[in-house]
C-alpha cells in the first residue's frame, strides 16, 4: 500500500477484527497513531504491526512536511512513531514540536545507537528509543510500554544510554545512573507512586524501592523531589 497522503484514508482496524488479547493493557479502547518514516516498506510493516496490537487508526507521513500537515489535520494522536533520519529535517525537531502541541507519547525509531542521538531524543520528550534493526518483539514491547505510560530503550541502546549518564549529587560530584534508574526517576517526576512505577516497568514495589534507595545513595539524598530536581537540572529527565 502506498504512503497515506492527506487526501487518502488512513489504515484502520476493521470492526470486530481485533482479538481481545491484542489490546494493549490496560488500555481497552483502540488507539490512534502517526507513523513518520520515509521508507514505504518499513512504514507499512510498522503500521501493520500497530493494527495487530490494537491501533484503531494509523496515519502515515514520509517527511517532516507531511508529518506537520498530518499533525495539524488530526490533532494529537495517542502515539507517534518517528524516524530520526527524515529527508527534510531532523526527527528530534519533530519530537519537540509534537510534544509542544500536546502529543502525549512519542517513540523514536532510528538506525543509529549514537549516544548523542539517544540522549537528545529523550531530552526532547520521547518516551522510547527503538532501533530499526530491532525484532518485532522488541518493537511491540517498546510500544506497549509507552502506551502503558512508561519509557523504553532498545536493549542494545540501554547500555549506551547508561554510559556517562551522570547527575551531580548533593555534593556536586557526578554520579552515574543506570538506564533503569533513569526510567524510575522519570516516572517519579511524572508523579507516579512506587506501585504505579512497578506496574509501568513490570517490577515489584520492593524492586522499585530498591532502585530508589540506590539512586538516593548515589545522589546523596533520599528526598524524591530533590532527586528529581537534580536529574532535571542535569538534563537526564524532563
TrEMBL record:
Keyword Ribosomal protein: no
Pfam families: GerE, Response_reg
Keywords annotated in UniProt: DNA-binding, Phosphoprotein
Positions of the Response regulatory domain: 32-147
Modified residues (4-aspartylphosphate): 83
Stored PROSITE patterns: HTH_LUXR_1, HTH_LUXR_2, RESPONSE_REGULATORY
Name of the molecule in the record: Response regulator
Amino acid at each position: 500500500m502506498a504512503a497515506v497522503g492527506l487526501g487518502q484514508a488512513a489504515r484502520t482496524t476493521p470492526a470486530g477484527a481485533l482479538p481481545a488479547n491484542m489490546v494493549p493493557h490496560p488500555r481497552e479502547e483502540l488507539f490512534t497513531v502517526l507513523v513518520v518514516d520515509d521508507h514505504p516498506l518499513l512504514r507499512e510493516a510498522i503500521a501493520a504491526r500497530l493494527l495487530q496490537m490494537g491501533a484503531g487508526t494509523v496515519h502515515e507521513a514520509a517527511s517532516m512536511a507531511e508529518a506537520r500537515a498530518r499533525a495539524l489535520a488530526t490533532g494529537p494522536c495517542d502515539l507517534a512513531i518517528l524516524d530520526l533520519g527524515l529527508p527534510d529535517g531532523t526527527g528530534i525537531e519533530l519530537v519537540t514540536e509534537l510534544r509542544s502541541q500536546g502529543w502525549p507519547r512519542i517513540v523514536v525509531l532510528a538506525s543509529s545507537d549514537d549516544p548523542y542521538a539517544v540522549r537528545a531524543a529523550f531530552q526532547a520528550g520521547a518516551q522510547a528509543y527503538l532501533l530499526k534493526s530491532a525484532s518485532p518483539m522488541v518493537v511491540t514491547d517498546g510500544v506497549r510500554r509507552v502506551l502503558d505510560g512508561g519509557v523504553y530503550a532498545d536493549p542494545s541502546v540501554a547500555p549506551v544510554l547508561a554510559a556517562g549518564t551522570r547527575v551531580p549529587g548533593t555534593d556536586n560530584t557526578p554520579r552515574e545512573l543506570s538506564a533503569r534508574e533513569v526510567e524510575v526517576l522519570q516516572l517519579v517526576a511524572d508523579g507516579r507512586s512506587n506501585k504505579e512505577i512497578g506496574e509501568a516497568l513490570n517490577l515489584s514495589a520492593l524492586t522499585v524501592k530498591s532502585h530508589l534507595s540506590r539512586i538516593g545513595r548515589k545522589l546523596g539524598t533520599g528526598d524524591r523531589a530533590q532527586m528529581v530536581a537534580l536529574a532535571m537540572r542535569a538534563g537526564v529527565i524532563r
